[in-house]
Amino acid sequence: MSLRIAARRLALSARAPNNLPSSQTPVWSAGLGPSVQRRHKWSTNLFKGWGKPRTKDNLAATADPVTGQLDDPKNREQFLERSMYSGVEDNIFQDEIEAPQKDASTEATPGAGEMEQKTKENMAMVVDPDPRSRIRWQRKKVIQMVRRNGRLTKEERIVMSERELLHKSEFMPTSVKKLVMLARQIAGKPVDEAITQMSWSKKKFAAEVKYYLEEARDLAIAQRGMGLGEANGETFAKPRKIQTKEGKWIEITDPTRMYIAQSWVGRGTWRGKKIDYKGRGRMGIIRHPSTSLTILLKEEKSRIREYEDSETLKAKKGPWVHLPNRPVYGQRPYYSW
Fold it and tell me: pTM value?
């Protein structure tokens, strides 16, 4: 049985022998006699100094050498001056900062080309981090160009001659089954006609589809210069009549009129879940979906080219023959009846 608290304090307050070092001063434990105090990693007070008033000595001992002394206005000014006006090893544009500014009326200072070359060398690690791979890629492209003798593929000619814009919307709080109906409704229609359809539609998200159609139309005009044929006078003297992929015949007067070549939807992440309570103590989970709408805008010249390609392919096939002239294999040596 251990001593009481008062007796334990009296035993610990007993004087220790003076001939032992301070690290091995015996501590009188209750009922066991003197024991040697040893140091370990938990003997240090981790919370030492907490709660003391902030003085200059404490700040100097605990402050961060970089940002801890920025409370002083003088130290802050010196730190900013060192950071903004550092040497050449810290700032790659130091040569341009220290170089005298050129005047348009005076001649160029000697050594300007050398300074500019040095700046390019300093920037080489950023603009050209892997020069060997770049040279290999350029060599490969030159070999391909020489083998083709400057000829372009059909896909490259289409990309260079026809313009298009791919626009994707944000995820909307609706399902794929509901939004795919609107995507099918506007596919293949001119942009203005699709916007009119969405303006008078009774669907809830028709307004959102109309907003993204208008946004895609404005981006196509501003970024790609699409749909400016009437403004520039690029119209047909006689309307062109073509047949779409759906089998509908249309007349085209402006070859740069924008139409929706493709429109599709994509499933997004679930917006949340809710319990669906059922009978007999059962339940289900209702997940709230999100869906995006993607639109591919093209000009009517692309649709004219596709129609002409399909007609050329039909002409190359020739007339349909009921019994083509080809060898017959696996004939039976007897009648099949």
Answer: 0.57
